[in-house]
Amino acid sequence: MRTCMWVLALLLVFGFAWEVGADQNVPTERISGSAGDVLEDDPTGRLKVYVYELPNKYNKKILQKDPRCLNHMFAAEIFMHRFLLSSPVRTFNPEEADWFYTPIYTTCDLTPTGLPLPFKSPRMMRSAIQLISTNWPYWNRTEGADHFFVVPHDFGACFHYQEEKAIERGILPLLQRATLVQTFGQRNHVCLKEGSITIPPYAPPQKMQAHLIPQETPRSIFVYFRGLFYDINNDPEGGYYARGARAAVWENFKNNPLFDISTDHPTTYYEDMQRSIFCLCPLGWAPWSPRLVEAVVFGCIPVIIADDIVLPFADAIPWEEIGVFLAEENVPNLDTILTSIPPEVILRKQRLLANPSMKWAMMFPQPAQPGDAFHQILNGLARKLPHAQSVYLKGGQKILNWTAGPVGDLKPW
Ligand SMILES: *[C@@H]1O[C@H](CO)[C@@H](O)[C@H](O)[C@H]1NC(C)=O
Ligand SMILES: *[C@@H]1O[C@H](CO)[C@@H](O)[C@H](O)[C@H]1NC(C)=O
Fold it and tell me: pTM of the entire structure?
């Protein structure tokens, strides 16, 4: 009874405006992360990026072969390329560049069912680096320390979709000195290099916008989740998935009336998130999933169940204040934990989520918008400047080992 009463008390919601600042009624609050109040910074004038011109086979041709790459959760690599081509931070003079960008699409090799397989990515990457290091002097100057690469696949530049294999491979040796922009974020993991920029996965902005419901719609669902609890066939005997965290959600709360959880993916999925107070974001194969982006965009407080996760733009966004964090082993206490959060804390989280700058930071819209994920990436790169003198190698000095790594990676692409 007590629970029901305060759930009702929470049905008061704060909507959000898609247009930045369009709705004066939306209570906004400045959002500050560990790097300070940087979410709305404008990167223009703070860095210059040189975009290498590569043959189409590294990017456009790959996309032509499979246009589905524009819609999957790793599409940021394509949109970042397009964004940079017309960005005011782009320079055509490499001598004045702070950062070098190599447009290469490593996650656009899809199986018939649309699953990206990065098996060719290491060879492709090596081929591209060979090309830029032979045709321009800038790679050899730092061996990539002033270069960044967008590698959004599950385990980033480890280039394998299975965690054990990814760990065994490690980050591609040629990328050891580069800055990686990746979706994968887990602390103390060989596939997350110090200094990487963690980005949100891609969720199609137009599609989300098409499902917006009136801001004043009450949030009548307490906890919402749609997705698999067990393996790919949702078979409880099918092996260990999500380190058991999703199975624990199902087994503990399938009959709890506060929990609207199921494997069915309804057509009202996005609308349902806008009618919910808490949206579960448990780990899957990787610590993250597009659910995090969807929860934020739809103002549903993300309940993050993924030990050691590194969240997108974590130095610009105070995730602890916005979401709820739960250790994987604590899943059985999820109901108690959520129902004991004081209403004012929930309202504050909803208010932070209602800030349009939060939503833009999670999206890669076309055309780009101030403060969107593209701008957060650039701001992250700008905050790393100036480069330390030590990144510039002394005449002829070589650090990278071009023959390290699995022999199969050395074959020409
Ligand atoms: C960069 O160094 C490699 C050897 O490591 C060499 O083959 C290549 O020609 C150099 N690039 C330039 C532009 O001098
Ligand atoms: C480079 O890596 C290969 C393969 O692991 C190894 O045999 C070789 O000794 C390494 N070269 C140097 C200079 O470390």
Answer: 0.92
